[in-house]
Write a structure and sequence with these properties.
Mean pLDDT: 95
CATH topology of the largest domain: Rossmann fold
CATH superfamily of the largest domain: Alpha/Beta hydrolase fold, catalytic domain
Number of helices: 23
Structural class: alpha/beta
CATH class of the largest domain: Alpha Beta
Number of strands: 20
Radius of gyration: 28 Å
Largest sheet: 9 strands, mixed
CATH architecture of the largest domain: 3-Layer(aba) Sandwich
Low-confidence stretches: none
Distance between the termini: 39 Å
Strand order of the largest sheet: 1-2-3-5-4-8-9-10-11
């Protein structure tokens, strides 16, 4: 009962296959979009193209709120800085969703002045970060009204915060973003929706101020603020000039870095439908855009250069090639003083009609707490009824996702599940050509080591373990352990219990698991939730597919293989799936798609995606993007798939909740079995066996 040795017992180097498969798909998508771009030869063609990628982006983030509710702005204090004042501002981008900001207003304005919206990168202190203050000060001293706002999770807007202790609950801003991001993804949206809407409402506020000329509003930010700038350039047509910094590149260059980004930066389907980063620039065409970069960034400068080159081709169609440019500071990742100076001069030229001859110095900045607009320094402790991104997503989900879903024709439901998992184009008829590379008796168990290609260049592996005594089993189960075949030694007791029941077990490795585990592409210290599995899942989502779906497809191919074996055929022979933990989720979804199994057993499986969405502090170390697919919960939860598994004997052992805790019998009865029965998904003729570890 031995697992595989390295490199599939020496037969194949598989450590990069999952990475290469996703990059191959992405390369094909990049080439298709490149051909589409090259075919553009007129402004009319480009503007039709632009509308397509703008629509794709808005769909990917879940659209924008339909109603512009009252901002209810409040200036909570004013700081006199000599040539300008700073107003401490709070507004509500949505009811009870408070945005904290600082408004820099030059003195002695002789009429409505141009303004600049400053959006923050991933600095924990948001608008109060020293480098960000410096940009705002230089702009204000040059006569611009500047609005700098805290993004969710930063500055005064921590989203997971305990007011009584003054402590953050789940980590820094990027961790907050990705924690919430999973819940948005399941509902067919993105946390970027809230970032963009906050900014759109900031433009509304600037436009309402008598000091501001609403036709001359610029935009800048760096890093995560460069991301936000890019999104706002696409979504907000009132921006008259922009300078996104230290973010613009190409998706192709980003893909090769292996770096992870937090959830709001990952746009579902962007590899295939856009927008690519040059699309963010040209979304403003022919308006002026200056791209800021640093020479030693972790974002590849080559990608930045290529994005600007592509953008210039589009601007040339408008006769406005000079309206797009690039500036590079010799620095690592930051809003460098050279970029700050370039920003001021770009805005002077294009929003004021003045020469770009400003030279920056060392702007005088304030201690961070001096800019606090709230009395406590945090929205959640200052406004007890304030909403968070979690609350907004839950409200939106409750509106859009009926519980439970009405019964759907099985064929339609299966087709929908296939599409949402992103495996509609996978070839289930691809030749298997299984190799049995070891067949020997180990400790009384006949054991076979088997591998085959689930898809071109995708090796999957399995260990077939026969019960002792040479008996012909009446049941063969494909077994999905979280660690795959590599976990056989640790799971020996559990496996032997099944073997003693006379079952044959095929312990199986879908791509990226067990003997075909992917090599790490992100160092472990980087961040607890932004590791390799997350990055691969992000790449898949940007392809419009999911790693969850690809692994479910591999499980289906494993079942296809078993059905080719003579010892798994014959009258009365049962075929089953047995999955543990995340393997249980793969088993459950594969069983729903296969629809021909006799027995399905899961242990310690998440019992409800809805439970993930409604649980503020779900276990993000346990559940991540690798266990999800974009928009899945818009169509069904796990309970809704029960009719697809029937009439197989389905046993759900020790189901677990979003906290990764066992679910008690009463909760299961209320939120799963009872829900299914009330919806007509199960009846007296067939129902799952739900075995809770914790009784009522």
């Amino acid at each position: 009962m031995l697992p595989f040795g390295s490199h599939v017992d020496g037969y194949y180097d598989v450590s990069d296959q999952m990475i290469h498969d996703l990059r191959r798909r992405a390369d094909e998508a990049f080439r298709r979009r490149e051909q589409e771009r090259r075919s553009i030869s007129s402004v009319a063609q480009f503007e039709a193209y632009r509308e397509r990628y703008r629509a794709a982006f808005l769909e990917a983030i879940g659209g924008l709120p339909r109603e512009r509710t009252p901002l209810l702005p409040e200036v909570t204090g004013t700081i006199d800085r000599g040539r300008y004042t700073i107003e401490k501002l709070i507004y509500q981008s949505l009811p009870e969703f408070y945005v904290t900001a600082a408004l820099y207003v030059p003195k002695d304005l002789r009429g409505p002045a141009p303004a600049v919206l400053f959006v923050c990168g991933h600095a924990e202190d948001g608008k109060a970060y020293r480098n960000y203050q410096a940009v705002c000060v230089d702009l204000a001293e040059n006569g611009f009204v500047v609005l700098a706002m805290d993004p969710p999770g930063q500055g005064e807007r921590y989203q997971y915060f305990e007011p009584e202790t003054g402590q953050r609950i789940i980590g820094g801003c990027t961790t907050e973003h990705t924690h919430a991001g999973l819940q948005y993804t399941l509902g067919g949206a993105s946390l970027a929706r809230q970032f963009v809407w906050d900014a759109i409402r900031a433009v509304d506020y600037l436009s309402s101020r008598p000091e501001v000329d609403a036709n001359r509003i610029g935009l800048t930010g760096n890093s995560g603020g460069g991301t936000q700038s890019s999104f706002i350039m696409l979504a907000e047509p009132r921006i008259a000039a922009a300078m996104p910094n230290t973010f613009i590149m190409t998706l192709e260059s980003y893909l090769k870095t292996g770096q992870a980004q937090d959830a709001e930066q990952v746009v579902r389907g962007a590899f295939i439908n856009g927008p690519d980063h040059d699309d963010y620039i040209t979304s403003m065409a022919p308006k002026p855009v200056l791209v800021g970069a640093v020479a030693y960034d972790f974002f590849p400068i080559e990608g930045t250069q290529e994005a600007v080159r592509r953008a210039k081709e589009i601007y040339r169609l408008y006769g406005a090639e000079d309206n797009v440019d690039m500036v590079v500071a010799k620095s690592t990742h930051e809003y460098h003083p050279d970029l700050r100076q370039a920003c001021v001069n770009w805005m002077r030229r294009h929003l004021m009609g003045k020469p770009g001859d400003f030279v920056t110095g060392q702007p005088e900045i304030l201690p961070g707490e001096a800019l606090n607009a709230t009395p406590t320094g945090q929205v959640l402790s200052s406004f007890p009824k304030s909403k968070t991104v979690f609350d907004l997503n839950l409200e939106n989900a409750r509106t859009r996702i009926p519980r439970p879903q009405p019964p759907t024709e099985p064929a339609v439901l299966r087709e929908s599940l296939t599409a949402l998992l992103g495996i509609g184009r996978e070839d289930r008829n691809y030749p298997i050509n299984a190799r049995i590379i070891r067949d020997e008796v180990i400790e009384g168990y006949r054991t076979e080591h088997i591998f085959f290609f689930s898809a071109p260049d995708v090796v999957v592996t399995g260990v077939m373990i026969h019960p002792r005594g040479g008996m012909q089993p009446a049941e063969t189960d494909l077994v999905l352990l979280e660690g795959g075949t590599s976990a056989i030694p640790a799971e020996r007791e559990r496996l032997e219990a099944q073997l003693r029941q006379g079952k044959r077990l095929f312990v199986f490795d879908p791509r990226g698991i067990g003997a075909v585990e992917s090599r790490p592409i992100i160092p472990a210290p980087y961040a607890s939730v932004h590791l390799s599995e997350y990055r691969l899942a992000c790449d898949a989502m940007m392809l419009g597919i999911s790693t969850l779906g690809l692994r479910v497809f591999d499980v289906l191919r494993g079942l296809d293989y078993l059905r080719t074996r003579e010892d798994c055929q014959g009258a009365g022979h049962k075929l089953g799936l047995y999955g543990i933990g995340h393997g249980g989720l793969l088993a459950y979804l594969a069983a729903a798609l296969d629809g021909k199994l006799d027995v399905v057993t899961t242990e310690d499986m998440l019992y409800s995606y809805w439970d993930l969405v409604r649980t503020r502090y779900y276990s993000s170390r346990r559940y991540g993007l690798a266990q999800a697919a974009w928009g899945l919960l818009e169509h069904f939860d796990l309970v809704d798939l029960l009719p697809l598994i029937a009439p197989a004997r389905l046993r759900l052992v020790n189901p677990r909740n979003a906290y990764d805790e066992p679910v008690d019998a009463a909760t299961l009865q209320r939120n799963f079995v009872g829900l299914a029965r009330a919806a007509g998904l199960i009846n007296d003729g067939w129902a799952p066996e739900v075995l809770a570890a914790t009784p009522v």
